[in-house]
From TrEMBL, chains A, B:
<dbReference type="InterPro" id="IPR001902">
    <property type="entry name" value="SLC26A/SulP_fam"/>
</dbReference>
<feature type="transmembrane region" description="Helical">
    <location>
        <begin position="394"/>
        <end position="411"/>
    </location>
</feature>
<dbReference type="InterPro" id="IPR018045">
    <property type="entry name" value="S04_transporter_CS"/>
</dbReference>
<feature type="transmembrane region" description="Helical">
    <location>
        <begin position="431"/>
        <end position="455"/>
    </location>
</feature>
<dbReference type="InterPro" id="IPR036513">
    <property type="entry name" value="STAS_dom_sf"/>
</dbReference>
<dbReference type="Pfam" id="PF00916">
    <property type="entry name" value="Sulfate_transp"/>
</dbReference>
<feature type="domain" description="STAS">
    <location>
        <begin position="483"/>
        <end position="606"/>
    </location>
</feature>
<keyword id="KW-0812">Transmembrane</keyword>
<feature type="transmembrane region" description="Helical">
    <location>
        <begin position="335"/>
        <end position="357"/>
    </location>
</feature>
<protein>
    <recommendedName>
        <fullName>STAS domain-containing protein</fullName>
    </recommendedName>
</protein>
<feature type="transmembrane region" description="Helical">
    <location>
        <begin position="369"/>
        <end position="387"/>
    </location>
</feature>
<feature type="transmembrane region" description="Helical">
    <location>
        <begin position="133"/>
        <end position="150"/>
    </location>
</feature>
<keyword id="KW-0764">Sulfate transport</keyword>
<dbReference type="InterPro" id="IPR002645">
    <property type="entry name" value="STAS_dom"/>
</dbReference>
<keyword id="KW-1133">Transmembrane helix</keyword>
<feature type="transmembrane region" description="Helical">
    <location>
        <begin position="241"/>
        <end position="262"/>
    </location>
</feature>
<keyword id="KW-0769">Symport</keyword>
Length: 629, 629
């Protein structure tokens, strides 16, 4: 890294045209505000199709936005019906046993599992955008409901109130989801990173398995029960084995029921489901509880379960859409989920979502549209109207086994290992969530996961990297000398790249760190007897923005540097940064001629002035200043 | 921005050496962890002076670290003493009336104001690093104490308990400050941005003024009283007027007392201070309250007042150190503040800090070292021992006037205007804090200020800018086409720069946004009949880091782009990004030959392949895919 290899570039600027760094023309505040709002809330520009359309067409497009079924139903063909029928019956065979199992997980009457696979899928088929999502209850949400409502109300002592609170929580979950979708605040779920969800789901699955084990072994239930569900990655399941896993739950139910029926095991202590009421969903709109103190619990439960269910559902929808090459509008999906849950809360259903496992089955079974959900709903309807007596003898242990089998699929240790290999911080997030859920409860796990994730973002801004750049041989390119060991230090010039915006959170740190870079460089030059430092070039390419604290920092840095008889030079400041520096009169203060378009230009300008080497003796004078008390 | 001006660069890579982008060699995790910890906690490398020193010297250096007086006292000269004497007496003349006033603001016995100007400055003189800071009570903290403790305990009904709680809060403030300093967590105060503090202080000053007005006009006190203090900027006061403002409080006290004494106004309803006990600070270590429920209030009050006082004190210290060209270690200062308050809490003092106004007076009066604080403390000691009867007749209205005069100086509307001009978001932070304090209370104002500030950081990462780059004429440089209108679009190539790290918070957004860029570009090319899009180059210069969500996003983006028969190219990925992409096998997937050191190299490589223009008809085939339901 010695400077013997450094060749001074010629002053000629012919091949870069000596472009000047300009201050961008001022933009009216409202215009840039409008732009920022659009980027935040409408990054995918969903209203693009509405442009230049007559009013009647706009009305139809609007209706189609909220009810996508109006868009694809006219193009529905018999071919699709065949595929959707098979897929629908397949997921129904999962939905029925799983629905009953998860309802018990939520300490709710098992029939609710069937109700929840009837109305919500119908609503989703009308309003949802995914062609592959299979709607139903999810283990995580069921566990969360049991846990959070269970803190307030004991399901055994007060089952009616507990039931009504579950409906109320579902209602608020729906309202929250729909609101987020309508207000286009969907990006909030982006703050739940994949790593956090892997840990979170794995932790809940662990807890559920342990809980079910206790049930299977006849031990008392856990008092804390947190339940996490689907993994967010596209699984690469072998399609042939998938039929086995798809049929397994229903088969176990049938075999188990037969066994109990034939041996009359229920009279010998084996617990069974028992009586399941016939008939469709009763209305429950009058059951919603809006009084304190329960209202707050219901709201809290609704919001947390709503967010988690939604995050999963949207990720699942997006994964399959990516795979099949169509597009999903996340905010539109949220509205669909919200309406689904609001409708469900009024028709004796509890929280539903789009679980990954069931959607994967739907996908592998060859579904073509959301009609598969309609087929499933019809199958469940038939079950509700005629087939509920069949479940009378189903042993609970079969339900536990079904739950455990689903849960084990959720402990995604492969994803965790991948995280460990690629990005250890993400692994920490994952483990933090896991540990929080297993040893604390689900809310703690969620808080830990989100906090650690956000901390990472804050940390990136608060402690940005500063890199020393060197010249790539035979070029005007300057790169990080640690990344490219063949890059050469430029004599008399220290080139630093700052890898983050300069905000209040990192201004002090940057000032200290850059000062330290300068100190260390001066020490090095002094001890090696080379030319003293004359220029410090700050490469601002990666500085996306700057605030007033950042501008103060640059001012202070300039003062510090000036005192040491060194010149500060800026290279490649972006548009936003230039605007602010101009308004703060920093450019006047520094001098326009010391702001360059590229590091190469800056170095050339410095070298032009740098023809004699300043011996280190000249510096001694400025150092005396430091000794004055 | 047409492509008629674009000249294809020649394939010759002679002047950039066709450098390859390498994956940096793997670093042991512990080594990079150690590096990161050092950057976070020791950015200024304070232990540098300890290197290569014998053990005895290390011990002395260590002692000097905690007691800087041992370092500068041996070099103290008579010259300094002269300056410090004048400065010390000047600030004493402020400290005495202000101390009494602020103590009343805190609903504490006025004598505490004098106690607090005796012991704490002595501690600071031994342990502090600033030569200009003048220690004493501050209006903000006094107001905060009145507000927060007042919620728990009424100062009029239960004055003894209130007093003891104030000591306890001061104790915890000291412990918190010292801990932060010892654990080198000082960067936490960096999260209170200058803009937030301007608004915060202005709001509190407003509230105090209104409160005092009510007192002066004889109206009832506000129940909410929040008090914010010093402005964090170096004021450019005209030194000649400063003597007037420095002498004014004491003069008013003397005149007011004389007036009341001569007219016996205190018998006619004019409230006066009354009896002030003679004698030095009594010990209060036994008065500290460590029982619930008050303990929690004391801790909370202590932490909040401690943080605010500390943030101000360090900023003030730094400003003057910058000005006079010496260095302050923020963490060391925190330890000094902490010990000052712990000692104060045991000697009947309440929270002290380094207020800007008094330090500015100290500075302008020509102080040379912290001995000015010692002189002030001695002056206060003399007052405590002999002069307290002089304050018997001081009317309270004079104290109110003193407070108001100090507060008006804190409503820094000039700073607010500057914020509005330079950075409107900072202005919003400022106003948010102001409104929160004035219309809510201080805690709300603080929470609002910090939240909005942090939101800005999160928003920067969650909604990064993506810029389209064009070629600067006659060069290989590519810059933002909005910033440089003379930059030319490259035909068949879309070059995008991403201005932030690619994390979970922005992965979805970036994928949508980049897809939209591609859609819009393809629409534009189709309608103008030009060559279709064949390459998308992502300039990763400003992408400081990437996590697993980001890598998934790049994977998905590549799939989307591949389907459209477009090639994805990366330019200038940094060391961290390359490492992660390599571990995640993305580089294998993309192809090493599609990662270039500069955008220029990438464009040259694309052009080499791009010699025939692909007509838009070829694209139709890939679009049919989108119509499949």
């Amino acid at each position: 890294m010695g400077n013997a290899d450094y060749t001074y570039p010629s002053k000629s600027n012919a091949d870069n045209g000596a472009h000047r760094v300009a201050v961008p023309p001022p933009q009216p505040f409202l215009k840039s505000l409008k732009y920022n709002l659009k980027e935040t809330f409408f990054p995918d520009d969903p209203l693009r199709q509405f442009k230049n359309q007559p009013a009647s067409r706009k009305f139809i497009l609007g209706l189609q936005y909220f009810l996508p079924i109006l868009e694809w139903a006219p193009r529905y063909s018999f071919q699709f019906l065949k595929s959707d029928l098979i897929a629908g019956i397949t997921i129904a065979s999962l939905a029925i046993p799983q629905g009953i199992s998860y309802a018990k997980l939520a300490n709710l009457p098992p029939i609710l599992g069937l109700y929840s696979s009837f109305i919500p899928p119908l609503v989703y088929a009308m309003m949802g955008s995914s062609k592959d999502l299979a709607v139903g209850t999810v283990a995580v949400a069921s566990l969360l409901i049991a846990s959070m409502l269970g803190n307030e109300v004991n399901a055994n002592e007060n089952p009616k109130l507990y039931l009504h609170l579950a409906f109320t929580a579902t209602f608020f979950a729906g309202v929250f989801q729909a609101s987020l979708g309508l207000l286009r605040l969907g990006f909030i779920v982006d703050f739940l990173s994949h790593a956090a969800i892997v840990g979170f789901m794995g932790g809940a699955a662990t807890v559920v398995c342990l809980q079910q084990l206790k049930g299977i072994l006849g031990l008392e239930r856990f008092t804390h029960s947190t339940d996490i569900m689907s993994v967010m990655r596209s699984s690469k399941r072998k399609p042939k084995f998938f039929w086995i896993s798809a049929m397994a739950p229903l088969t176990s139910v049938i075999l188990g029921s037969l066994l109990v029926y034939l041996t009359h095991a229920e009279r010998h202590g084996v617990q069974v489901i028992g009586e399941l009421k016939k008939g469709l969903n009763p209305l429950s709109i009058t059951d919603l509880v809006f009084v304190s103190p329960y209202l707050l619990t219901a709201i809290k439960t609704g919001i947390i379960t709503g967010v988690i269910a939604m995050a999963e559902g949207i990720a699942v929808g997006r994964s399959f859409a990516m795979f099949k090459n169509y597009h999903i509008d996340g905010n539109k999906e949220m509205i669909a989920f919200g309406m689904m849950n609001i409708a469900g809360s009024c028709t004796s259903c509890y929280l539903t979502a789009g679980p990954f496992s069931r959607s994967a089955v739907n996908f592998n079974a060859g579904c073509k549209t959301a009609v598969s959900n309609i087929v499933m709903a019809l199958a469940v309807m038939i079950t509700l109207l005629f087939l509920t007596p069949l479940f009378h003898y189903t042993p609970l242990v079969v339900l536990s086994a079904i739950i455990m089998a689903a849960m084990l699929g959720l402990i995604d240790y492969e994803a965790a290992i991948h995280l460990f290999k690629v990005d250890k911080f993400d692994f920490i997030v994952c483990m933090g969530a896991y540990v929080g859920v297993v040893f604390g409860n689900i809310e703690i796990g969620l808080v830990i996961a989100v906090s650690i994730s956000l901390l990472r973002l804050l940390f990136f801004v608060a402690r940005p990297r500063t890199l020393a750049l060197g010249n790539m041989p035979n070029s005007k390119i300057y790169r990080n000398m640690e990344h490219y060991p063949n890059a050469n230090q430029v004599p008399g010039v220290l080139i630093l790249e700052i890898d983050a915006p300069i905000y209040f959170a990192n201004s002090s740190y940057l000032r200290e760190r850059i000062t330290r870079w300068i100190d260390e460089e001066e020490d090095r030059l002094k001890s090696s007897g080379e030319c003293s430092l004359q220029y410090v070039i700050l490469d601002m390419s990666a500085v996306g923005n700057i605030d007033t604290s950042g501008i103060s920092m640059l001012d202070e840095l300039k003062k510090i540097i000036d005192r040491r008889a060194i010149k500060l030079v800026l290279a490649n400041p972006g548009a936003e940064v230039m605007k602010k520096l101009d308004k703060a009169k920093f450019i006047e203060n520094l001098g326009q001629e010391w702001i360059h378009l590229t590091v190469g230009d800056a170095v050339a300008a410095c070298n032009f002035m740098l023809h004699t080497c300043k011996p280190n003796a000249v510096k001694a004078e400025s150092e005396q200043w430091n000794n004055i008390v």
